[in-house]
Amino acid sequence: MTATQSNSSQPITLYTGGALFGLPDASPFCIKAEVQLKMAGVPYVKAQGMPDQGPKGQIPYIEDDGTRLGDSTFIRAHIEKTYGVDLDAGLTPQQRALSWTIERLLENQLYWTVVYSRWLIPENFAKGPAQFFNRVPEAMRETLRQQVLERVTNNVRAAGPGRHSDAEIADLCDRSLSALSLLLGDQPYFLGDRTTAVDATAVDATALGVLASLLTPYFDTEVRRRVLKYPNLLAYTDRLMAEFYPDFAWEPAVAAA
């Protein structure tokens, strides 16, 4: 698909967290937003973002023609409206409905498993999110670290996974992963091939962000072991990483199975 030009001569600035944990970005939503920009063919540059500087208190966010906009879903809507692209072009109404349903499963269930696995499993927290606070002055570092951990713990509990045991979380995720595997089948993308310049659709940007975040070997989790049972999800993730991040040193998931 080809984007039209906006009134601004400057590229979009995409604010993200940066490469971390064996991923092009620590946040699945930052990966999603960047891949959507790549799909749309819209010029952009990346910059280090701080959640408290974003309009919704989170990353990613973009700046386009002097306006800041947050949340990957609303970023997509802005791109499509401003630059005249449709990331689901060629899909039927039923396929668009299925795309939204898959996206909700990925973001409302599996994403929170990513958060749980990084923040609420002590050994993963110690090697992962705990390091975010290393630049904070030592006198307040541990206090801030514990405050943020408590806030994230409450959020994960409110979202659901924080109320369950590790085994229950893994079982629920396995059901979602099985559904995704069946929906993908032997297609290259979740909604199959399309006779357009870009075959992937918006849901593939979401799926790549979440599946890669579950599959990174940086964290040892039961859910990662569950994902490794689905060869088509592994091949899909590896293929999209090669397509959208050809210069990133991704450790192939297929090799780990």
From TrEMBL:
GO terms for molecular function: transferase activity. It holds the Pfam family GST_C_6. Keywords: Transferase. The keyword Transferase applies. Residues 28-124 form the Thioredoxin-like fold domain. SUPFAM superfamilies: GST C-terminal domain-like, Thioredoxin-like. The keyword Cell inner membrane does not apply. Residues 175-240 form the Metaxin glutathione S-transferase domain. It comes from the Bacteria. Signal peptide: none annotated. InterPro entries: FAX/IsoI-like, Glutathione-S-Trfase_C_sf, Glutathione_S-Trfase, Metaxin_GST, Mito_Protein_Transport_Metaxin, Thioredoxin-like_fold, Thioredoxin-like_sf. This is Glutathione S-transferase. The lineage of its organism: Bacteria, Pseudomonadati, Pseudomonadota, Alphaproteobacteria, Rhodospirillales.
